Amino acid sequence: MAKTIDRRRLLSRSAVLAPAAGLAALLSADVADADIEGRAHSLIGTWHVDIVFPGPNPPEKGLFLFTNTGLVICTNTRIRDLGLGKWTARGSSRFDFTFRHHMFMPDGTWVGTLDIAHSGSVTQNTFSSSGTGTVYDTSGNQTETIESRTTAVRY
Questions:
Q1: Domain count, the chain
Q2: pLDDT one-digit tens code per residue, 99-148
Q3: Domain that holds residue 97
């Protein structure tokens, strides 16, 4: 007996599987692009971070995760939105990372993005980095660049 194909069921399963397949492809590409030296780098893991800025800007706290595939996932007390990016080893104790946060008003209105680019050094249980945060409005126009320094403790 031939089995009939239920299009609705097929499409609903495809809708569920397509994002998962996309994520798997992204992670596979990330693994392929990851720096070989970075796979055993001491930066890999979870970190409690303190972020400071020059001038009157108040300091922030955050949580960062650096994966063995070169992925950075982070959040902080000011933006409170997930930041996603990548990191690269630059020797056994040096590294660079970049990530992007979306920025929202208290009512949920999207107001732009913040792109972070830092370079730093790591020991077994601490890291420090410095770099810039560049703010873009919703049209992609650069509106501000702010320097920052980060210190972190592994947890």
A1: 1
A2: 999 999 889 899 999 999 999 999 989 999 999 999 999 999 999 999 99
A3: 36-154
